[in-house]
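[recover] target loaded
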């Protein structure tokens, strides 16, 4: 059945945005769009939480995205900061250690462990509180199509029969085996990694030898991963041989380096599943007003903990652009920048994960020992492990919405600020959902008119109420001012002593800044001056 055959036009329901898939990526996209006043309907074929592979790690940038989605404090209550990643040899001796800071650039621990069902619960509770969002469970999408510039037609069925939605845009968050990728004619590009692993989630109050970070065992015969997820929650991952399965005795042997479970009844396997880890990326992420996000667009082996993180970055990148086009007259070309910005970054992280899988967990060829020796040698070079950690958050490539400069394409830091009424808040909570200009100098009239056209807040970094982080960041970037997008990425900068942005003509037409000031929701007032 095609979308055109699902129902007649009289029975079609119009919705601004339809999101297919109610996993963390789809629900986060709905929450972010709601912040901009965009109504969404989220279609999920399952009645309950979608049984996807469970993520357990996130970074500080993604915790900032969850803050934008409105669940920062709730997630903090279920997240556990981690110390980083250790590479161990087959005898569990440390090859290298990648430390992660308890306070990252984005205002959160650089690595946090969590239980994905807890995250999904928090996101769905937040979704239920938003009048702009509606979740329809038990809704199986059967067809998606768009004719020319007309609305996207989404056919689905549930217990009540067949239905048709007419949408201004559709976000495909339906995973690796979903329908939306096929609907836009996208194909997988294979990045040449495929391994079979078993994932085991355990609860125990017994003594576990744990350094409060992730262990990556670089054993070519049995590569493994171990991490602590919660107070009494742990995860082990082991690569499987062809046709291999793990019985209770073999599992006891494999976990023995961390815990002795012989004769103990306090070791409960709450979930054990086998997965095939693959590295793939879709050759196209958009056709018309239909977009791919998350696992529908890219598949990442889990070795650097960036699979779910990449999907949430997709949602953050696209949501404000789509809202701008649908509600504020943004140019359709604005939507082209989604794939242009996100695809290279996703590809980079996939390659980094593949390199980790082959070089750090040993691989399966005769050069494995040489690679492990090389890794250990390189990691002894001062600063290498720190740079490797920072490489997860590399700047977006230069483009229409990320002008080339020292700060272009990077995210601004997020310090705590003290407001006029004495509140101590994270910086993004003060800025709200609008564009913003951070400046160390008075803005000339032309720049002030431009910021008014964007509806941007103007923040004097010397009076921001922070600890000096923002002013120091501008100085280090040789900038007098920067223009921040709603996702807090630097769009353009005023070079030190320059007096104007570097390339307004490239981005202003996409944002339609000539339409006059854009009314924004009220935000918390910044201090006029704050003694530190």
């Amino acid at each position: 059945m095609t979308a055109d055959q699902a129902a007649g036009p009289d029975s079609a329901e119009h919705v601004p945005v339809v999101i297919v898939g109610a996993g963390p990526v789809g629900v986060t996209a709905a929450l972010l769009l709601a912040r901009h006043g965009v109504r969404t309907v989220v279609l999920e074929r399952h009645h309950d939480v979608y049984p996807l592979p469970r993520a357990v790690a996130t970074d500080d940038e993604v915790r900032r995205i969850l803050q934008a989605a409105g669940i920062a404090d709730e997630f903090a209550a279920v997240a556990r900061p981690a110390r980083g990643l250790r590479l161990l040899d087959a005898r569990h001796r440390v090859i290298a250690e990648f430390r992660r800071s308890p306070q990252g650039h984005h205002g959160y621990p650089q690595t946090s462990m969590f239980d994905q069902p807890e995250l999904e619960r928090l996101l769905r509770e937040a979704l239920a509180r938003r009048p702009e969002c509606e979740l329809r469970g038990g809704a199986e999408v059967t067809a998606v199509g768009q004719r020319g510039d007309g609305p996207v037609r989404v056919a689905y069925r549930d217990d009540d029969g067949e239905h048709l939605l007419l949408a201004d845009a559709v976000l495909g968050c339906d995973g690796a085996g979903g329908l939306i990728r096929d609907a836009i004619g996208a194909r997988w590009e294979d990045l040449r990694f495929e391994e079979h692993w078993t994932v085991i989630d355990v609860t125990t109050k017994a003594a576990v030898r744990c350094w409060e970070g992730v262990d990556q065992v670089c054993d070519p015969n049995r590569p493994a991963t171990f991490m602590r997820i919660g107070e009494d929650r742990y995860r082990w991952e082991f690569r499987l041989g062809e046709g291999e399965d793990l019985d209770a005795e073999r599992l006891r042997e494999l976990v023995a380096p961390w815990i002795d479970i012989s004769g103990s009844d306090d070791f409960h396997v709450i979930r054990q599943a086998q997965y095939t880890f693959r590295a793939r990326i879709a050759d196209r992420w958009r056709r018309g007003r239909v977009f791919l996000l998350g696992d529908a667009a890219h598949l990442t082996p889990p070795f650097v903990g960036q699979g779910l993180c990449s999907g949430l970055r997709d949602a953050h990148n696209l949501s404000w652009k789509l809202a701008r086009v649908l509600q504020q007259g943004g140019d359709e070309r604005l939507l082209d920048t989604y794939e242009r910005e996100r695809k290279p970054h996703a590809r980079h992280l996939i390659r980094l994960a593949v390199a980790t899988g082959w070089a750090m967990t040993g691989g399966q060829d005769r050069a494995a020992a040489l690679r492990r020796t090389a890794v250990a040698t390189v990691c002894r070079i001062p600063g290498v492990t720190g740079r490797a950690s920072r490489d997860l958050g590399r700047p977006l490539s230069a483009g229409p919405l990320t002008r080339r400069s020292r700060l272009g394409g990077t995210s601004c830091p997020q310090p705590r600020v003290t407001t006029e009424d004495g509140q101590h808040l994270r910086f993004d909570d003060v800025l709200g959902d609008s564009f913003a200009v951070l400046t160390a100098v008075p803005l000339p009239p032309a720049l002030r008119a431009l910021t008014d056209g964007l509806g941007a807040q103007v923040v004097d970094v010397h009076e921001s109420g922070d600890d000096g982080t923002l002013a120091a960041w501008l100085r280090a970037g040789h900038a007098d001012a920067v223009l921040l997008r709603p996702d807090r990425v630097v769009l353009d900068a005023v070079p030190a002593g320059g007096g104007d942005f570097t390339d307004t003509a490239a981005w202003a037409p996409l944002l339609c800044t000539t339409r006059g000031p854009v009314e924004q929701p009220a935000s918390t007032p910044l201090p006029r001056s704050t003694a530190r």
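[recover] notes: DSSP finds 15 helices and 25 strands in the chain.
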